[in-house]
Amino acid sequence: xxxxxxxxxxxxxxxxxxxxxxxxxxxxxxxxxxxxxxxxxxxxxxxxxxxxxxxxxxxxxxxxxxxxxxxxxxxxxxxxxxxxxxxxxxxxxxxxxxxxxxxxxxxxxxxxxxxxxxxxxxxxxxxxxxxxxxxxxxxxxxxxxxxxxxxxxxxxxxxxxxxxxxxxxxxxxxxxxxxxxxxxxxxxxxxxxxxxxxxxxxxxxxxxxxxxxxxxxxxxxxxxxxxxxxxxxxxxxxxxxxxxxxxxxxxxxxxxxxxxxxxxxxxxxxxxxxxxxxxxxxxxxxxxxxxxxxxxxxxxxxxxxxxxxxxxxxxxxxxxxxxxxxxxxxxxxxxxxxxxxxxxxxxxxxxxxxxxxxxxxxxxxxxxxxxxxxxxxxxxxxxxxxxxxxxxxxxxxxxxxxxxxxxxxxxxxxxxxxxxxxxxxxxxxxxxxxxxxxxxxxxxxxxxxxxxxxxxx
Length: 457
Fold this sequence. Notes:
Number of helices: 11
Strand order of the largest sheet: 11-12-8-7-1-2-3-6-4-19-20
Helix content: 25-40%
Shape: globular
Structural class: alpha+beta
């Protein structure tokens, strides 16, 4: 059995630095490269893309990333696991196979697609089986949005990824596998951890959680000491080295900027976990309160003491639904008395919109620069000579919002000193709202498909 396994967190979100994975592959001495592309809003975007083009629906950044580092990963025996598959894991895997063949690596790359998380075509079946899919935050019944459903994906765990690795895949393309479960799968495969060894699974989830946001844990999102982070423009990516007992050492890309210390580690450990006594995942309920964190050396932190209990019997579902339309516009006022000018402009625009009697359900005006975010009651001391007036609105009537955009885009009689619209005339866009729900885990059946030249199996 391998003494330790080194796993690099190459990506924290779709749109992250596409050169980071290659640096990890070439300089990190890693055994696995894990990349997390997905978030709730990402799945909604990918669903829209898939509806427009059946060959799309995955995170397209995977192609330039692997064009840069796939060959080096193969030469070094590094296995790649990611959830770039989004709404179309099979299509993404086939595109990666095309790339591998283009690079002359077709016979050295074995690609697996992990799916089964997409529930959009199974909603009626699941509800008939007893899944009520009510909103777990508000308690509202699913019937409120059933006819407007845009996407629905269950967060599945490490098991199908472990199976893909067992079947010899060295590139695993997943759909909505839970972020830390990608890392846990690598550890389970390497060490032979069983699906009910709760403390070890909890350690794997801790390791995955540490690296799932990429450079957030290496100083890229350091709340307590951001002023002192060295070479932030060259911030490194995280690397966890884990042994078979679940002890973790956290470091970063050698020779990179950023910092790894107890504070950055704890900040990331606490990020988006909910109850620290029960961080719920598809694989295990992990207890953060038993963790021990200590500095070993410069940019090297030890984490151990993870404990866990059986996973919940339900899986979280990230769903989205069509919720009308929105638009926004910005005007910069740059002149003495900028705040007064912008406030008067708001009055003028409000009256122009009011006379149209449009069906607009929600309107928001902000004076950005006067404390709009933190709701200051008065501008900061001193006269401001620059301020941004922001308008935003929502409606279930697209035509009314479009009419409002036209009205707001005209040159109106009002205070001088404004620029033109920033960045231009407002665009009316469809709104997809979030609907979190639960589904019994037994209803979900993940699949593993090996994608090979000449066919799949």
